[in-house]
Amino acid sequence: MKQVLLILGIALASALPLTLLAQDRVSGPNAGAEKFNPARDADADIRAAVAEASRTGRRVLLDVGGEWCVWCRRLDTLFATHDEIRKFRDEHYVVVKVNWSPENKNESVLSRYPKVAGYPHLFVLDGDGTLLRSQDTGALEKGKGHDPAKVMAFLKQWARAE
What we know:
The structure is a single chain. The chain is α+β, with helices and mostly antiparallel strands. The protein has one domain: Glutaredoxin. 47% of the residues lie in helices and 18% in strands. The protein has 6 helices and 6 strands, in the order ααβααβαββββα. The protein has helices spanning 2-25, 42-56, 70-81, 83-92, 107-110, 148-158; strands at 59-65, 93-99, 121-125, 131-136, 141-142, 145-146. The protein has a 4-stranded mixed sheet with strand order 2-1-3-4. The termini are far apart.
C-alpha cells in the first residue's frame, strides 16, 4: 500500500507544474492574480487563449500593460475586490496579460492590433482570434480607479451573446 501511495504521490507531483503553467497561460478562477511578465511568450499565450475560447464558447480579453503601471494595478485590484465582475469576466472571457515594458514591449504581437495610446489597454477577440474591440481604459475610470459599473458594462457589451 505504501508503494502505491508513493507512486501516486510522485505522479501527482510531476503533473502539478504542467497544471500550474496552463493556469498561468489562460484565465481561470485565479486569472486576476497573474502579473504582467516580460518573460512570457505573448504570441503563444494568445494562441492558447484563442483555442480555449473557441473550445469553451468565450471571447479573449487581452489586458496590455506592465507591473510599472499604477493604473494596471488598479484594474487588477478592481477584479480582485469585485467578485461579481471577476466571475462574469472569467465566465465569458479567456484573459491574457500582455506585458509592455522596457524589458519586453511585445512589438511583434502588438503590431497586429491598433496602436495603444496608454496603459492598461484592453482588446477583445472573438473565439477565432478576430479583433472585435480596442478599448482605452481611461473611459472606464472614475476618480483614482476604474468604475465597477463601467467595467461591468464593457464586459457585458463585448461578451458573446448567449
